[in-house]
Amino acid sequence: MVFTLTAGGDAGMVTASNLVIDGEDLVGDARFGTAEIGRDASTLDAVHGVQGDRGRFGLQARGIEVAEVRSNAWSATGGNFRLRGMKVDVSSGGKKCL
């Protein structure tokens, strides 16, 4: 099963607060504020009550701006999402985005 969510582009900026992404990649042009990259995911503390698995790669930042973002993720949660131009596609047997 492949779930694809797209948003932004010509429709405008996408924003989220307290965003947590559980995934394998994040691609785009990024600007981080107070970034901690490569920290053990079980020690992350920027979003209260959210940590990853011990020994896994973790990244947290107090702020991030990403343009042209693409991610293959299992989940994304946030306190407040604004997804302009959102499109959701769910298909069985599809391939993940590259």
Describe it.
With about 100 residues, this protein is mostly beta strands. The chain is built from no helices and six strands. The protein has strands spanning about 1-5, 15, 20-40, 55-75, 80-85, 85-90. A two-stranded antiparallel ribbon has the order 1-6. Strands 2-5 form a two-stranded antiparallel ribbon. Strands 3-4 form a two-stranded antiparallel sheet. The chain is globular and about 35 Å long. The two termini are about 15 Å apart. The mean pLDDT is about 90.
Helix and strand sequence? EEEEEE
Query: What is the count of DSSP helices, taking H or I runs of 4+ residues?
Result: 0
Q: What is the overall pLDDT average?
A: 89
Structural class: mainly beta
Task: Give a count of the beta strands, DSSP E runs of length 2 or more.
Answer: 6
Poorly predicted regions are none
Distance between the termini: 16 Å
What's the arrangement of strands in the largest beta sheet? 1-6
What's the helical proportion of residues? under 10%
Evaluate the radius of gyration. 14 Å
What is the makeup of the main sheet? 2 strands, antiparallel
Proportion of strand residues? over 45%
Shape: globular
